[in-house]
């Protein structure tokens, strides 16, 4: 296994290794696109020398498939969701020639390292994870409780030193650092780190909220499809959803923490148009909300319309023709190799 190094003026320069993952849990919406996928594409250009691993984390998606509602059930849609997500990534501009795209379960070392980490870290590390506290129910699975350890293994397996995440994922990167420090203290030789301590790259984008409730995050699991804009929505449906998006009776186009719905729409406009929020407020000063909503729908369609059509085209052939390169086809730094040494 070779390190990803470069030579510069006779000196060996370590290249950044970037790892990021996304769950295949249904159709991707604009919140997912702005929060993860667009950032992945930007990193291909802003960090061209870095090694990038973009992972479809299908094992993580299993944590909410198990349900008890009068009877025990398991949502067995992971295969279809993986292909849909792969098609979306490719259609959006994630380039397999510049970034390694792969499915988590194709690489058994993820779960192998996760087990090792689970045996060297205390339960107290997992007990403090806020996302588990937010999501747990009386019937929650062990997988939901322990998945932060698998997430740490995802990152550490490739010796990634940069992890792009949203604000709600920073705690998971900090946990990965704890595991890396513990691993190095137990197994590394003096003054040598088998695993570098990963740093998070916080994504600079507005948090996208539901079109039905500006206080709740836009979510694939929301029972109302009109709460979100999906990447594969056609232009007519996007216009319809934006026109019906909840606002208030005040009527002015202005950000205000007491007006979460209109604030959310303005932030979405800013993300897709590239305009600053004050510019948007000034542009629509004294204009009707319907005018603003129609223009918002247009700027969204201008970006995701083509992506949606390309995604659907790929999905149409994906079940028989679309394949992803597995991680085995590239040279990577796997911790298991270091352990054998």
Short description:
The chain is 46% helix and 11% strand. It is mainly alpha-helical and 341 residues long. It has a 3-stranded parallel β-sheet. The chain has a two-stranded antiparallel ribbon with strand order 1-2. A two-stranded antiparallel ribbon has the order 5-6.
Would you spell out the secondary-structure blueprint of this structure?
Layout: E1 5-8, E2 11-14, E3 17-22, H1 30-46, E4 51-56, H2 58-61, E5 66-68, E6 72-74, H3 78-92, E7 100-103, H4 109-118, H5 123-127, H6 130-135, H7 142-157, E8 162-165, H8 170-187, E9 199-202, H9 235-243, H10 260-273, H11 277-283, H12 289-318, H13 335-340
Parallel strand pairs: 3-4, 4-7, 8-9
Antiparallel strand pairs: 1-2, 5-6
Helix pairs in contact: 3-12, 4-7, 7-8, 9-12, 10-12
Sum up the structure in keywords:
mainly alpha; three-stranded parallel beta sheet; two-stranded antiparallel sheet; disordered C terminus
Estimate the mean pLDDT confidence: 86
Largest sheet entry: 3 strands, parallel
User: Count of helices?
Assistant: 13
Based on secondary structure, the structural category is mainly alpha
Q: Strand sequence of the main sheet, in spatial order?
A: 3-4-7
State the shape: globular
Number of E-state strands: 9
Order of SSEs, N→C?
EEEHEHEEHEHHHHEHEHHHHH
Strand content: 5-15%
Helix content range: 40-55%
Distance between the termini: 11 Å
Spans where pLDDT lies below 50 across 5 or more residues: 1-13, 325-341
Q: If you compute it from the alpha carbons, what radius of gyration comes out, rounded to the nearest whole angstrom?
A: 22 Å
């Amino acid at each position: 296994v070779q390190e990803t190094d470069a030579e510069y003026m006779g000196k060996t320069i370590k290249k950044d290794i970037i790892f990021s993952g996304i769950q295949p849990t249904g159709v991707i919406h604009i919140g997912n696109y702005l929060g993860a996928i667009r950032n992945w594409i930007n990193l291909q250009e802003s960090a061209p020398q870095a090694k990038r691993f973009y992972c479809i984390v299908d094992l993580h998606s299993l944590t909410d498939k198990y349900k008890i509602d009068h009877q025990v059930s398991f949502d067995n849609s992971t295969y279809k969701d993986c292909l849909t997500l792969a098609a979306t990534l490719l259609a959006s501009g994630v380039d397999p020639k510049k970034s390694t795209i792969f499915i988590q379960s194709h690489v058994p070392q993820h779960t192998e390292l996760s087990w090792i980490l689970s045996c060297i870290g205390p339960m107290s590390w997992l007990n403090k994870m806020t996302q588990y506290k937010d999501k747990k129910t009386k019937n929650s699975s062990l997988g939901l409780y322990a998945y932060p350890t698998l997430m740490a293994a995802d990152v550490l397996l490739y010796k990634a030193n940069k992890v792009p995440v949203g604000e709600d994922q920073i705690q998971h990167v900090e946990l990965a650092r704890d595991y890396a420090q513990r691993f190095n203290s137990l197994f590394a030789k003096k003054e040598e780190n088998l695993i570098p301590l990963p740093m998070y790259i916080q994504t600079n984008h507005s948090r996208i909220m539901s079109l039905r409730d500006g206080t709740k995050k836009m979510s694939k699991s929301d029972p109302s499809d009109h709460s979100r804009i999906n990447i594969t929505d056609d232009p007519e449906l996007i216009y319809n959803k934006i026109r019906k998006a909840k606002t208030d009776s005040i009527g002015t186009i202005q950000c205000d923490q007491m007006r979460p719905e209109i604030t959310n729409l303005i932030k979405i406009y800013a993300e897709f148009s590239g305009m600053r929020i004050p510019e948007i407020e000034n542009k629509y000063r004294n204009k009707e909300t319907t005018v603003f909503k129609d223009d918002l729908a247009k700027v969204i369609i201008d970006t995701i319309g083509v992506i949606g059509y390309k995604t659907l085209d790929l999905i149409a052939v994906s079940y028989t023709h679309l394949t992803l390169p597995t991680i085995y086809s590239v040279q990577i730094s796997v911790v298991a190799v270091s352990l054998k040494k």
